[in-house]
Amino acid sequence: MYNGGKIIIGLLIFVGIVTFPILYDRGKVTAKPDPKIDTPEILKLPENERKCVESKAFMTKEHMKLLNQWRDWVVRDANGIYINTEGKRYTMSLQNTCMKCHSNKKKFCDECHNYADVKPYCWDCHIAPKEKET
Amino acid sequence: MSMNRREFLKIAGASAILGFGGISAIDALEKVEGAQVLSELKALKAKRWAMIVDIKKFKTEEDYKKVINACNHIHNVPQIANPKHAVKWIWTDTYERTFPDLEYEYAPEEIKQKPFIMLCNHCDNPPCVRVCPVKATFKREDGIVMQDMHRCIGCKFCMAACPYGSRSYNFLPPRSYIKEENKEFPTRTLGVVEKCIFCYERLDKGLPPACVEASNGALIFGDLADPNSEVRKVLSANYVIRRKSELGTRPMVWYLI
């Protein structure tokens, strides 16, 4: 092998750089996201009305798709009311419906979004509810 | 492998059906089972919304201000002093610049001096809609020319297409120029185009547009398709003019001089 030493050293450096992020993070425990749903607005509701527009499992998994549909229905199709699977009616609005209950954007939205490193651009335009600094 | 024409068509047909079936299956997965949507029950509905500006009823500076401020506050319109960066939904300009084609030297002095209210004309044949490459601006069924800020890529084609200067681009971060935010309505972001939306969000709640409400009858709003609407009554009883109607955009804002 010509220049064998240089090639082997080069390969070692390459493998080192590629595996560095994995090795660096090994053994470290990142706190699991724990979104909070204990805002004063939610706690004020009677126990049996403490429900989101759809089931908790559905909202956790599919809220982004739901919000996407809401936006199209409201902005493009001029439909303002959402009738959920139980037949209950809601005004489709991020600012005026979702965030009226979930008034804790930092502990509710950002908690998971930061963990998963997703950066939805909702708040470039939509106004987040005022929060006390914690 | 040899295949005759008949076999080929059979396979092609079957795979096309399977393909469409696949698309509808994806569609079904995307939607929440059992969920439905409705338009608001108390929403104001029309076949073709239109507005009349009764310029005679605008007498003092205050009359203009309260109409413009009502809109600016409700829609979080940034107030930027530099005219190159200004964002306008409803504003005033001179007679000469409102009706460049109708302007003549010997017009009454009163008309020449008077500021005219301007806003998006919600054209029946909107050139902005035709040029938008992403369909961010589109015409609703009730005639409102809407702007979907989620979809706007800020290419400014619509601004070049609009003969009325009704569209503004956000050259500066709009939030820094809003004194008091209306928490019920979103702001815009840097790099999108915005304009008057005939208060679709208020119509959906059963309210008239903010400017109309604040105008004390100087702005008349209604359904052009309904012969009994106030708009139609005023139109049939008075001679009115429109801005640059010779361009064929069919503007839906009339001026009662």
Explain what the structure shows.
The complex is a heterodimer of chains A (134) and B (257). Chain A is mainly α and 134 residues long. Chain A has one domain. Chain A is 54% helix and 4% strand. A two-stranded antiparallel ribbon of chain A has the order 1-2. Chain B has one domain (49-256): Alpha-Beta Plaits. Chain B has a 4-stranded mixed β-sheet with strand order 9-2-11-10. Chain B has a two-stranded antiparallel ribbon with strand order 3-4. In chain B, strand 5 (137-139) and strand 6 (145-147) form a beta hairpin. The longest helix of chain B is centred in the first third of the chain and has 26 residues, at 5-30. Chains A and B meet through helix 3 and strand 1 of A and strand 1 of B.
Task: Please describe the structure with a list of short key phrases separated by commas or semicolons.
heterodimer, A: 134 residues, mainly alpha, two-stranded antiparallel sheet, 6 helices, 2 strands, 54% helix, 4% strand, B: 257 residues, alpha+beta, Alpha-Beta Plaits, four-stranded mixed sheet, two-stranded antiparallel ribbon, 11 strands
